[in-house]
Structure formats: C-alpha cells, structure tokens
Amino acid sequence: MLRRTPCIGICSTTYGDLVCRGCKRFAHEIVQWNGFDQAQRSVVWERLLDLREGAVESLIAIDDPARLASAAAGLGLSAETTPAAANLLYEALQRLRWRDGEVVLSDLGARVRDPAQAELPVEALITLIDREFYQRSLAHYERYYRIPAE
Questions:
Q1: What would the pLDDT profile of 37-86 be if each residue is shown by its tens digit?
Q2: If phi over 0 gives left and psi between -120 and 50 gives alpha, with beta otherwise, what is residue 11?
Q3: Is 105 exposed, middle or buried (CB count within 10 Å of its CB: 0-12, 13-18, 19+)?
C-alpha cells in the first residue's frame, strides 16, 4: 500500500534542488502534489518505485525471493502490496535499520553484488541505494526536461 505522499520530510527543493534528495520527486511535482488527481500521483509513484527498484538491483542481488517474502512478512510487510522484490527488500532494510543487532542479507535471501561491500552495515547499504536512486532521478529529470538538475 502506498503512502499518501512520497515525502519523507527531508526536502532539498527548498534549497533550490530541482530533484528532492529526500523523496526523489521533481520540484514541480512537490509543489503541485495536492492538486494532482490519482492518475497523476500514480504516474509519479510508478516512476519512483521503478527507479528505486533499479537502484537496489544495481547493488544487491536477490537470490531467494521466497525467503525475502517470508522475512518481510515477519516485519509486517507484504509481497502482495510491494510486488517488486527489490522494493520489498528496500522496505525490509528500512525496518531493520532501527533494530539492534547485525542484519544479515542472506537472511533476507539477498547478497551485495560487490564483494568489497559485503561487510557494510545496513545503514551504509541504504545510503548507497539512496545515492544511486537520487542519481537515477537526476538522470531521468535531465533526460525528459533537458535541464541540468544540479
């Protein structure tokens, strides 16, 4: 189930960014969000989920989707409402980041693609994913609006 808004409360568009470093929406989408109808909001959500999915998949391989679904269910997440495995993994990592103890990706049916990153804590993996997601959002903005976002 999608939240009402992609906003996560870390808005960089107030400082002049054309792509928000928090939610990765474009500045005009943030400004116009409350005026968007459901179809317009769905288009934005779909783009954000697709870009985040690609960012996760570029860094982490999901070897056992069934194990991921089971672990996610234990965290109160559903593969039915978050069908893309990469997005389900991201949501699981977000929930696990606040838990005490080490998070083992293999317990989620996943592994990092770069062996040099195998020992990174979950917080660092989320940071890497978010950076990649932001870069993909910038590239999307620049491609379709033909304006450098930075």
A1: 999 999 999 999 999 999 999 999 999 999 999 999 999 998 887 779 99
A2: beta
A3: buried
